[in-house]
Each structure stands twice: as C-alpha cells, then as structure tokens.
## 1
Amino acid sequence: MSEQKKCSDCKHSKCRCKHEKCRVSGHKKCKCKVEKKIKVKVNVPTEMSGPIVCNSTCGNLLLTDQVPSLEIWKARIAMDATVTISVFNSAMSTASVRVLVIRNDGSPVEFSVPSGNTLSATVDAAESIIVFGIDTGRTEGKYFLEVCFPVICDDKRKHKKDK
C-alpha cells in the first residue's frame, strides 16, 4: 500500500483540493483555508459583445380625467433594452400612479406609486412604459428613465450603413 502524502497547505491526508499543492499531493478532500473561486460561464452572442449605451431622460407627469394614461417611452431599437424607471407622485396628487412596463416576453412589470412617494424598478427586455392615474382625479409627478442597450458591432450593420 502506497503512503499518501499530507497536503502542504492543509496538512490533511485526504485532500481533494484543486489547489496546485494539494493536487500534486494526490489527496482527496480539501481542508485549505485558501479562498475558493467560482467560475460562472455566461454565453454572450458575438453580435452583443459590443459596448453598452445608456440614455437618460426625465419629465413631468400630469394625469387627469382628460389624459388618464401616457406612454412615456417606446423601444425603437432592434436590441433588448434594460430600463430603470423612477416615478415620483406629488403629495398634492389625489390619486396613485400605476406604472406598467411591457416586456417583449409577454410578462409585464407593474407597480403603483402612492401620493407623496417615489418608486423605481429596473426591467430587462422592455418594449414600452405606460403610466396611468388610478381612479379619477389629478395626478402630478415626475419620472426619470434610463435605457441601456448593447451596440451591434457586426458586418451586416456596417454594410447597411454604407448603402
């Protein structure tokens, strides 16, 4: 029977560590106190490996019986956009604001902002954002919107531009 060497890092005879010193010793179980790294593989299509562009905008909201809803953003790009929307509903408002973010996978994100409050959400694959006044009355507020999307860096896009 061959004698197993003790791991020089952990001094344990049954080390299975992937650290170089442990692996060389042929041990089966790690007792090292060395930081272990976790590798995560993320598949990024080559056409999406370009830079990310973010655009920000803000505006005022005034929802009344005459204007009960307002589409404040609509995607006009071919790539999936990630949006961060923050909505402030003034304390002077008589109704809450409902925010609806429509996503291209069919699962909308929705939240309500009571008077005198601000709420935010970050949503991927967004197609449009619509705000509604809940119930009747006057709703005043502000919104901030950041839209981020990858830039396409492929030959097809370059050829279309040249023509």
## 2
Amino acid sequence: MRRYRYRCTLCRTTSPVTLGAADLAAETEAHRQTIHGGHIPDDERTGEIDRLGRWYTALTPLTALHARIADELSDLRDEKTMGHYWWATAGAALLIAAGAALALLLVVSVL
C-alpha cells in the first residue's frame, strides 16, 4: 500500500498520511482553497513516503530499496499503520544481501 503526504513550505504545515493518490489530491486542493485562496504555493511538496514518514525522493537508492521491501513486508501484517516491524527490516536486509551475493556469484562464475 502506498502512503502519501503533502507539505506546504509557505505555511510550514504537513498533511496527515493519506493512503491513495486521490486522497492526496483532495487534501492538497482543500489546503490550497482554504488557506491560499486557490493559489499554488511556491516550493510545495507532494509525494510518496515510507512507513517511517521519510520521502522516497530524499532517500539514497539502496535505502529506498530497503524501505520499499520493508514496507511491503510490513503491509503483509497490517496495511494501515506506520513503522516497520523488526522482522520486516531484517527480512529486507536479508533479501538485499542475498541478491548481492547471487550477483557476485554470477560474476565470479562467468569469469
């Protein structure tokens, strides 16, 4: 399940977490209409976040991969909460390490 958040840097406010793109658009439009009279503030930010509340665009590629895997594993247990379960974090690290080991094994076997 994807989680989204809207950030208005002009007002210095951040929306609550929404669980769909349509909910995010409604939240964004409601903020623009009520606070800014329909105008679009400069430097506003909308995007997808992980279960820890971090913007995916602000993460390094490896960290984003780990967060995405841990999010999906955590969603198997409970889709609507925030935060990672310890086993999901460990499982994500194990999957990434196994993928790296397999890639290394493939390269060594080819050479």
## 3
Amino acid sequence: MASAFAQRNDTGGRSSGGRMAARVAGAGATGAVLTYLSLAVVNAADRYDSQTCAQASGFCMTVWPVASVPVSLAIAFMMLVLIYRLLGIHPWVSVVPPTILFTPLPVLAAERLAASWLAVVVGAVMASALVLTLWRPFRALGQSTTAVVFFASLAVLIL
C-alpha cells in the first residue's frame, strides 16, 4: 500500500504553507496557458477549414477541425502530467483526468458568453479548484467551486 510515489495530501494546510499556494497558483497558470493554446489550435483549424472550403460548391470538410480537439486534449494531458510532476502535485491521477474531462464545457460556455479571455480565466479557475481538492482542509472549497463553475456553464450552454 505504501509506495515510493505515494504522498499524503490530507494533512493540514499549514504543513505545506507557501508550497501549497505556489502549487495552486502554478496549476492555475498552467490551466490558463493550456486553455489559451487549446483554443488557438481549434480556432486555427477552423480558419484553415473555412479558407480551404471557401471555393467549394458542395460539402467540404478537412480533417483538421475533427483532429484539433483530440490533439489539443492529448497535448493538455501530457503537459498537465509534466507540469504537475514538476510542481509536486501528487497524486496527479486524481487531478488530471477530471481536469481534462470537466474543463472543456466551462471553457466552451465562457467562450460563447464573452470571449476567449473569459475562457482562459475559467480554465485557470477550474485547474486551481481541482488541485485544491487534494488537500483535506480545502477539499470542500475546491469541489464546490468546480461544481458551481461546471453547472453554471451547463446552464449557459442549455439556456
């Protein structure tokens, strides 16, 4: 049960001190950068598709818009694993998959609601809130922040 990679994250917030704040801030910055890069990849693919298919008379679609979403998710997954390992955020298995699964809907809702700057902020908030769930004193705050942002984004997308 006890392995060399296990880290106990349920200790009090005071024990990690400034390191925890640096980890949460680093996760937020990583979330913001990855959100911006993912949006740039998807938008570039859409522009390429529009320019390529502008002269077509019938149905026209290139592979790039279809491939851009899985490619950006794969890049985000690898970068989250790498950056979280460098930041000392463990276990990353409990943070990275929810970040990859839950963040695209709020980002999409924020981009529809305002602009890509709001989507970048939402990506940072989601990444920071999900990292907060690793530490017991802040678990409820992280989970409730994630839930509020996620359900608010569903309301924006549905209504």
## 4
Amino acid sequence: MPPRKRAAAAAGQGELLSVSSTKEIQDILWKAADKLRGSMDAAQYKEFVLGLVFLKYVSDAFAERREELAADPELAQIPEHRRAAFLEEKDEYTEKNVFWVPPTARWEHISENAASAEGGVGVLLDTAMDEVMQANKKTLNGVLPKIFNRDNVDQKRLKELVDLISDARFTGHGDRPAQDVLGETYEYFLERFARAEGKRAGEFYTPASVVRLIVEVLEPYEGRVYDPACGSGGMFVQSGKFVKKWKGQDHTHDIAIYGQEANERTWRLAKMNLAIHGMDPKGIGKRWADTFTEDKYPDLRFDFVMANPPFNMSDWARKMDDRRWRYGVPPLSNANYAWLQHIVSKLGDRGSAGVVLSNGSMSSKQSGEGEIRAAMVEADLVSCMIALPGNLFRTTAIPACLWFLTKDKSPQGTKALEDRRSRVLFIDARAMGTMVDRTERILTEEDLEKISDTYHAWRGTKSARDKGLSYEDVPGYCYSATLEEIEKHDYVLTPGRYVGAAEVEEDLDAEPVGERIARLTKELFERLDESARLDAVVREQLGRIGG
C-alpha cells in the first residue's frame, strides 16, 4: 500500500512512529483509548476498544494473505484482467482460516476515509463490523460490537485512535507475525480493563500467572480442552501457546477447544480473543448460556478441563435430580461443589482438570459439602491441591487455591507414570510470588517452574524424566499423602495441614534466645517510658491552651 500523506493530528502519533516494541505501542494506544471513555459504560468501553483491535487484526490477516497470493509465481501466468478477481476470491482466504473482509470493511478503507466520512468515522466502523459479521456468519454472527456511532462517542477522539492504530507497527517485530503482536495487544487490554474494573472483572479475567500454572501442570499437548466458565477465553489461549512452545506452530490444532460462558458481553470478548489468536471461535458455541441450566456439551468428554468459575456462587440454578451430582447434591447457597462435580462428569477415562476455587472449598463442612469432598477423595479423583499466595486476584480478596482432578492415577501403560493411586500431592505456595505494586502479586517464571516441576516429578511425567527430576517431600512446601492420612484429617484438603513447617537451619551466629528476650524486654520498657513522658508533655501543653 502506498504511503498516505496526512497531517499527524492525533496526539501520540509521532511517538508511535518512533517506537518499535510491542509494549511501547500498547501503552500509547491505551493512553489514547482512555481519552475516549467519557460517559461510556465500562463494559461498553471494553467492547469498544477490543472491537477496534479485533477489526485491525482481521484486516491485517486478510492483507497478509492477499500479499501471499499476489506473490505467487503462478499468478503471473493469469491474464492481467483476471488477477484482481482472483485476489478477491473468498475461498482463497477462508481455506487458510483467514476471515473474509469485504472491501469497505478493510482497515485501509476506514483509515483513508476517516476524515471525510459523513457522520464521522463511527459510521464507517459500525458498517465494517456488520459487514465482517455477515461475511463470516458461521463464526462471527452477532459477535462484534456496533457501538461506534452512538451519541456518547467523541468522533474526533475516535478518529485520532483510528489514526494511531493505523500507524502502529504490528508488523516488523523480528520474525513475529502480526497475529502474535495483535494477540498480545488484545491480552494487554484485557488485563488493563481487569485492573480498572476491579471486582467486576472476575467474570472475564483470570490472572495470567494463575492460568499459566494450570496449563503448565496439565500439559495439554493434544486432545479436547474444555472450560465451563470460559470468561474471555484465557485458558484456551494459554493452552495454544503451550502447544506452540513445545510442539511448534504446525501443531496448534492438535487441541480442540470447547467452552461455555453465561455473560453475553464476555462471550463476545472470548470469540474475538480466540479468533485473534488463530483459534477456532466456534468452540464456544453460537450463543452464551448458563452451564448448569443449558449444558452445551451433555454427551462430550474431555482430555483436559480448566476453569476459574465464580467463587462461592449462591442462588444458582440447581436441579436436585441432576445426574452430575454423583457424589452428593451441592447446596443452593454455594456452587463450588456443583462446579467440581460438573467438571468431573466431563472428564474422559484419563482426563485431568485444574480448577480455581476459594480456600473455603478445601475445608467447608456446611450443607453436606464435607460429605461430597470425602466422597470425591475416596473415589480417588483428587490428584493435587495447591494453596495460592494472597493478592494474586485483583478481582477478589478471597484467598484462592487450585484443585487438580484426574480420572486415572495409574502408570497408564506406555506413559510409564508413577503409580499415585490412593495418594494426593499437597503443595503450599502461599509464601511464593512477587508483589508488582502495593496490591497485586504475580507468580514469577521461577515460581511457575518450581510448582509445575514438583507436580511432574511426583507424577513421573515425561517432562520430569527429561529434566532428570525425582520427587521427595519438602517440609513446609510439599507432601504426598495417603488417603488414610486424609481421612484422619476428616478429609480437609488444606495443604498446610500436611506439609508441616519448613525446616529452619540453625544459625550458629544467632543471638541466644534468653539474651534476645532480655534485650527486647529492655527496649520495650524504654519505649513505654518515652511514651509516658511524651504523654505528660502533651497533657501539659493542652492544659495551658485550655487555661
């Protein structure tokens, strides 16, 4: 495309042209997009910005495919008058899993006409969204937002944002394709919205380090992956990244994704998130739906299930005779054990699951929850319990844990795993993680590796054997318990009960306990005396003022 001559009217536009890192581009786009918020509803604003990023992605992917076709030597053999028609053949794009983008929906058209569009650029964007959905009905019907021409949208600032996105260098980042860069930008915006919305963000966002931990433990190299409360699709995206990292881009379709989301707006975000990462968005259905009242996959079983369902959800849609309640009817006041049993019901014969729940799920005995937990333990479904550190979730102050479930703890034939039948691994990770600011903690690369290595060493997986890892209990951190031990603890699954206290090495240079107590006692009395003196001075001064 020839360079366009236009004034750099948008604030930050010059900045964008001078930067090259994805992070710098993301920060500049966020600041520009933030100016548009105005009186816009937070949920609408989220759709607004992410919708723009998505439209830019489908247009860039379309343009890249078009350039591939134009560079094909065989095209030179076609008469010139037929070449343009060939480049507009829809099948040449869709057969490569590239969305078809009609001419007036392409970013080039929007950018070139943004300044002159009658009614403002919002009209162009709403039209483009509608045309892309109509051209790709099977996967995008009803997904994209058409909210750009509303009264509460500042058309001048919207044009500035369009100009910025037009100039952002989503290509030219080494050997990384535009899809990866735009995918990261989408994830970046999701995280920023989660931070901005606080507790309300729980329905669409799970902290990246928690998602990575679940994926690293489960190792979804191939098979069906399911999330019954998929939010914006983060579990699926990370699973795809895992496969790409260990098996290569050509194997990303070795996993098939299936999901369900009850919130319409969040379901839209998930559809866009999957598409922008090159994953099939059809996997999360044609519509949003409640997992408990309308299970979209009643007869399917899965190799991996990953979920971060709403914590301690009350007043949910329960049927007493539901076939999923194999281990006991969960209480109406709390859906934690409804989620767990639903997930167990979805596991294939050798399926495994990772689930984020509140800490209370590990020990609660209210309304029959203790009995359900005991039945699940005795059925040998619980593989591993991980206590997470605090402050990982901006969306809730409730402490969280990870449940890992499995249908088969045997060596599994040629996999040659460790036989862990009638055993459960407990990991206490509460002391791990790093605070990135005053209120948020993340699990570092080292933390993620340590925890996942511990699990794989215990299970004896191929990845552990390749690293030469072997498992052993570590006081204060991990312990492999028998079902008999768990029964003695009345089926409470809190890791702290099993791992014990960490061993403390004796410091030969440390101050003797008796001397330390005497010193601290002396310091305390000195501070109390000083406090009494200052109290007397304050009283005297106040008395003079009052006199």
